Amino acid sequence: MDTDSSPADSGADGTVPVESTASSVALVTGGTRGIGRALAAEFAADGVDLVLVARTEAPLERVAVDLETRYDVVVEPIAVDLADPAAPKVVHDRVRELDLAVEVLVNNAAMATYGAFAAGDLDAERRLLRCNVEAPIALTRRFLPAMLERGRGAITNVASTAGFRPGPQMASYHASKAHLVSFTESLAEECRGSGVSVTAICPGPVATGIHEDCGRGSTWLERRFMLSPDQVAASGYRAIERGDVIAIPGYRNRIIPTLVRVLPGVLRRRLGEWVTTPGVMPKRR
Ligand SMILES: NC(=O)c1ccc[n+]([C@@H]2O[C@H](COP(=O)([O-])OP(=O)(O)OC[C@H]3O[C@@H](n4cnc5c(N)ncnc54)[C@H](OP(=O)(O)O)[C@@H]3O)[C@@H](O)[C@H]2O)c1
Fold first, then answer.
1. Does 173 qualify as catalytic in the annotation?
2. Residue 210: which domain range?
3. Residue 233 included in any domain
């Protein structure tokens, strides 16, 4: 059941009513760790109030208090699982209840699975797709109309260089990031001249827990290209400010996407395997 398309909370033409006296915020999904937390800190350091979304309440509260104390901003935590199809509506309803206007939406939260697809857990793949693809689309659909009406705003999708190449053993994750890259480019063109920018931040490997969490670890190649969440967030934040459409933090991480464009398919797929599968490339100290 699509619990995120109730006509009761949409206008007659399907649009969402625009907030009126609302105060402006940036909404960051997955804002409690890794890249999301570092991006939230960039906004807070600029004096921007925040809404942070993640599943687990304790870190949400902890990060909210930390940012409020350090930067004198207001941070509203919302605890939901974005793999639940009802979550985008819950987030949107809460934002309206708080009378906030989302000026910047950062779709950052993501889940990863690792292993041969044929032996994988279909339910985990479905949850990944709902969190990485469906939730960004649904949140964008809910917050974009008000941005267009105000004539300003920014949608940011945290994709990945994984979106530019296949990733054997991580087929759904790579496909979800390819979706975000393509969605971003199309939407950026639809929004051209509207005052609303649409950006895909496409990091290469970043030192966070996401890969260990899905039981993978990092590969020889990834360790050579690894950036910190703070480096990615600083570069991504500048890209949002400039309104770049595709932003790849770190010049070295632009090599593989550039190479992939000119490689024949068979080599592109093999390169994907070297990058994603630990143990395929030689280990060096
Ligand atoms: N790390 C990398 O190497 C890398 C490279 C390229 C792109 N990226 C992308 O960067 C983004 C952030 O990744 P990261 O490495 O910083 O991840 P991370 O350290 O694992 O943090 C993930 C964040 O998302 C939240 N989250 C996860 N699943 C969720 C769900 N179902 N519903 C709501 N919130 C959820 C987590 O909080 P809870 O667990 O409490 O929900 C946490 O705040 C992702 O889009 C990822 O694909 C990462």
1. yes
2. 21-276
3. yes
Please tell me the predicted confidence (pLDDT) of residue 190.
98
Residue 178 neighbours by CB under 8 Å, 6+ apart: 162, 163, 164
- Closest C-alpha to ligand 1, atom 41: 55
Q: Is residue 283 part of a domain?
A: no
CB 214 within 8 A of CB 273: no
Tell which atom from ligand 1 comes closest to the C-alpha of 55: 41
Q: What is the mean pLDDT of the chain?
A: 91
CATH number at residue 249: 3.40.50.720
C-alpha–C-alpha distance, residues 280 and 283, integer Å: 9
Mean pLDDT value across residues 71-76: 98
Q: Is the sign of the CA dihedral 114, 115, 116, 119 positive or negative?
A: negative
pLDDT given at position 42: 98
37 pLDDT more than 60: yes
Identify which of 42, 75, 108, 132 to mutate to test ligand 1's pocket (most ligand atoms within 8 A of the CB). Answer: 108
Mean pLDDT value across residues 230-243 = 98
Domain count, the chain: 1
Q: Give domain status of residue 216, yes or no.
A: yes
Region 133-138 average pLDDT: 98
pLDDT for 11 equals 40
Distance CA 223, CA 105 (A): 30
| Residue 87 lies inside a defined structural domain of this protein | yes
Cα of 29 from ligand 1 centre, angstroms: 8
What pLDDT sits at residue 20?
54
